[in-house]
Design brief:
The protein is α+β, with helices and mostly antiparallel strands. The longest helix has 17 residues. The protein has a six-stranded antiparallel beta sheet, with no helix packed on it. Helices cover about 25% and strands about 30% of the residues. The protein has two domains: about 70 residues, Orthogonal Bundle (434 Repressor (Amino-terminal Domain)), CATH 1.10.260; about 100 residues, Jelly Rolls, CATH 2.60.120.10. The protein is globular, with a radius of gyration of 17 Å. It starts with a helix and ends in a 10-residue tail after the last strand.
Length: about 200
Amino acid sequence: MEPRIIEIAERVRGLREILGYSVEDMAEKTGVTPEHYVEMESGQHDFGFTFLFLCAKAFGVDIVELLTGERPKLSFYSVVRAGKGLPIRRRKSFTYQHLGYRMQNKLAEPFIVTAPYDAEAQDKPIELSYHKGQEFDYVLKGFLKVQLEDHVEVLGEGDAIFYDSGHGHGMIATGEQDCTFLAMVIDAPGDNEEDK
């Protein structure tokens, strides 16, 4: 397993233990089985964005802290130059560049995402994710097949979709090419663990 995954897994386990959550608590909060949660927390299994997003939310920390071990420091504005976003490789070779990683107290998580084209995935069910809040995706290059529960939309360059991410959603590149899109993940207001 790659060293970065082990480091992230150690931070997840450490925060869980510090906050006194059981494996079962975190499995429920992240929507996975306790066995699967243990595999991810031990670094045996890679984790997707939704898992990390839900862990960060449960722990009351910024997702960047889980990824890097550092707390964002900027509070007024942040500039990220072209190609200099915080790189995240997750979920079947999807590549994310976090474009707001230096900003603290974010209300949204902005990413440039590259979804690789996979011919075998075209006729398989798309894996769905669930997390409270909303998401906005804007296609910059290529074609994106988006499944929202029982609905399927194919988006091309310049197309956008905005949806309630508490409903099942997933996507793959289609059209025999990789797809690059802007994804804005917006947290549900007043739904932080510390507010409960």
